[in-house]
Specification:
Shape: globular
Bound molecules: hypoxanthine, magnesium ion
Low-confidence stretches: 15-27
Helix content: 25-40%
Mean pLDDT: 87
Strand order of the largest sheet: 4-3-2-5-6-7
Distance between the termini: 67 Å
Number of strands: 9
Order of helices and strands: HEHEHEEEHEEEEH
Largest sheet: 6 strands, mixed
Number of helices: 5
Strand content: 25-35%
Radius of gyration: 20 Å
């Protein structure tokens, strides 16, 4: 009994030490893969610093998130609320994986897919105000299980404001899936229930994420370069 107890304490100490070591280890804030390892469009030559998450890795992680969502919400009727514009790729791929799981298992997830368009960024800075573009009537959310699908959550303030907005329509349940969550110090907002990757506070583009509407056509998630920021600044 004592041996088991001591072993448990030992394992906890190792885990804690490892976690502290890991989070302070430079590779945790690594700069990304060299651009030479992957292909990307010629028109972005010089505008990128590195490939942060290759497309294949995004897909594999999304497949697993689809399984987690299916395990938790399978057999519920859900409304997927895709946050445009940045969330369109992640949402489309997530829906495809959920559909594939529904076809291949006894659990199924009837879904309605809808969209909400937000704007809160100019250049690489948050404008602090949640701006819902073309305000839509979301009253169909009343009494529904809602899954908000967002590409990126940084301070969480936008998500917090969006949750407040959605909750005003009295849905039965609201969950959030975020492909990326940034590790930022002023994280006072809401954190997604399903997270693809936690990344450092770098401005990333690609896979539908933009910098002033550019780079949505980039296959991988990449870190933008200073040249890219200057070239497309408005
Ligand atoms: N890239 C693109 N859009 C964003 C980001 C980012 O890093 N953070 C918040 N919106
Ligand atoms: Mg944007």
């Amino acid at each position: 009994m004592l041996v088991i107890y001591l072993t448990d304490i030992f394992i906890s100490v190792v885990k804690l030490t490892y976690r502290n070591f890991y989070s302070s280890f430079p590779i945790y804030d690594w700069p990304g893969y060299s651009l030479d390892l992957f292909t990307y469009p010629e028109h972005y030559c010089g505008d990128l610093q590195s490939v942060y998450i290759p497309h294949g890795v995004i897909m594999d992680r999304t497949e697993r998130l689809a399984r987690n969502i299916m395990d938790d919400l399978g057999d519920h009727d859900i409304v997927i609320l895709c946050v445009l514009k940045g969330g369109y790729k992640f949402c489309a791929d997530l829906v495809e994986f959920i559909k594939a799981l529904s076809r291949n298992s006894r659990k199924s997830l009837p879904m309605r897919v809808d969209f909400i368009r937000l704007k809160s960024y100019l250049n690489d800075q948050s404008t602090a105000s949640l701006h819902i573009v073309g305000e839509e009537d979301l009253s169909f959310l009343r009494g529904k299980n809602v899954l908000i699908v967002e590409a990126i959550v940084d301070t969480g303030k936008t998500m917090k404001a969006l949750l407040k907005h959605v909750e005003a329509f009295e849905p039965k349940m609201v969950k959030v899936a975020g492909l990326l969550v940034k590790r930022v110090s002023s994280g006072v907002g809401s954190f997604p229930d399903y997270v693809g990757f936690e990344i450092p506070n770098r401005f990333v583009v690609g896979y539908a994420l933009d910098y002033n509407e550019r780079f949505r056509d980039l296959h991988h998630i990449c870190v933008i370069s200073e040249q890219g920021k200057t070239k497309y600044k408005i």
